Amino acid sequence: MYIYHGTYLLSCGTSVVLESRNLVEGKQVHAHMTQSGLQLNAYLGNILLNMYVSIGSLPDACQVFEKLVKRDVVTWTSMIVGYSKHGCVEKAFESFCQMQREGVNPNTITCMSMLKACASPRSLMWGRQVHAHINAAGFEPDMRLATALINMYAKCGSIKDAFDAFRQMQQEEVRLKNALIGMYVKCGSRDEAFGVFHELQQKGVEPDKISYLSILNGCANPAALEQGKQIHGYIKKSGYLWVGNALIDMYAKCGGLVAAHEVFDAMHDRDEVSWNTLIGGLAQHGCGKQALEVFEQMKCAGVQPNEVTFVGVLSACSRAGLVDEGHHYFSSLCETHGITPTDAHYGCMVDLLGRAGNLNEAEEFIKKLPFEAGPAIWGALLGACRIHGNVKLAEHAGEYCLKLEPQNAGVYVLLMHIYAAAGMWDGVARVRNTMKERGVNKELGRCWIEVNKRMHSFVVEDRTHPQSEVIYAEVDRLVKQIKEVGYVPDTRFVMHDVDEQQKEKAICYHSEKLAIAYGLLSTAPGTSIRIFKNLRVCTDCHTASKFISKIVGREIVARDANFFHHFKDGVCSCGDYW
What we know:
Elements: H1 2-20, H2 23-35, H3 42-54, H4 58-67, H5 73-85, H6 89-101, H7 108-117, H8 124-137, H9 143-156, H10 159-168, H11 174-186, H12 190-202, H13 209-218, H14 225-238, H15 244-254, H16 257-266, H17 272-284, H18 288-300, H19 307-320, H20 323-335, H21 343-355, H22 359-367, H23 375-388, H24 391-404, H25 409-421, H26 425-438, E1 447-451, E2 454-458, H27 468-484, H28 500-508, H29 511-522, E3 529-533, H30 539-552, E4 556-559, E5 564-568, E6 571-572
Parallel strand pairs: 3-4
Antiparallel strand pairs: 1-2, 1-3, 4-5, 5-6
PPR repeats: 72-106, 173-207, 271-305, 306-341, 408-442
Protein name: DYW domain-containing protein
InterPro entries: DYW_dom, E_motif, PPR_At4g14850-like_plant, PPR_rpt, TPR-like_helical_dom_sf
């Protein structure tokens, strides 16, 4: 009776600890058990083991594990989960093998835990061995296990293995299809994801919430706006109006800000995610003042802002140059809302001050941080130095950036741009040589545009496109026309010491201009042109895009590595502040 009573109290005690996730309380429960004379049998050991794993104390979990004389499948599975949570995949796999050597057979939960642990490219080999064990052990077809297999292979980047795992399952349940859709989305295979989604519909199977959330995630880029609208239509017909947050996010990431706002306005139940998504979307599109208006509406609606909210708010202030407002909202984080600032909030403030030209204040802000500034914060200061041409501070910020991330090609490129703009060609050569010595390669700028459901890719001076001659002629025509209405090529950041004519030639056929020219040639007059680029849009292409939008009377939406630019009637939505 005493043992039963003690076991019951231990179970209750660990349940309380699991709710509070307090390690000190957990150790007190463990100590009480020991003092009460309870023997550490398999049942009690598993309770303690699960408690320590759940609250994240792997060393304590290991100590309990080592003291257990008898270990069952629950014991081993708990340790595998513990190792997985702490990123110790090799240890997890060793435990998976050792339990079998000791005569304990993994069950479905064990295998699912192991597959979750292996869900990264470096763990693909172990994941395949777990899959082989599942096949050899003759597990009954299990939806959860099949989904875990597909997800594991998808996160490892192995599409073929994921599809093979899918084909092995005879069932055509929605959950399996959802896993396959998610896999294709993660791998960037949008058309294949849509194929699976439409296959569900053709077979008369109603897509569920996960189906729609997964496919909307696949639509979240500028090239997929029309497909996103199509999915939105299906959602309206299905009555699944609870995916409003995903729709707002999808439209914002596609550049359809008006549609995102319309979805938000039509929602009856808005949570903090709804407000945060819209605020973040507005900030990403350079609509800083509108983002702050939505934030004030959020507070009036009685929705409590959180950490994510303030990242969006401070980012909006930074994009719009609202320095005073940024200071106010940053102060209110702790004082009004009781939120401890994170490195993301501090980074937004450095970006805000730097973009506004308050470089010394930004540097002092970094010095006063309660922790060592990371590469994102120093990178924000370096980017501001590029905007304002401060070579001395750029060298200081660049030194910290390269100390923290010596293989980050973007830092070297920024430094070369700053030196080039200042005419310091020895500095450009020095940085270029350092890159060569360290084996760092500059990422090639690439621009994409989708026309008639086909993606077209361009790099600088690209002549691989079948219509390159026509495209180049169109670029030449556009450049001639915009020069007549005031366009002056911006050659400041050309990283070669050549004459002005050669510099102009170097920027004339940038990937953005080639993509825009192809879009004008290939789409109907009056329609918007949507392009996206892997790097920050260059200053000259930004200026040229404004002029082109005016002379052709068409909107050009460009998504670069940072955020969106909407060029219309000779003006950009960012207000030339990006």
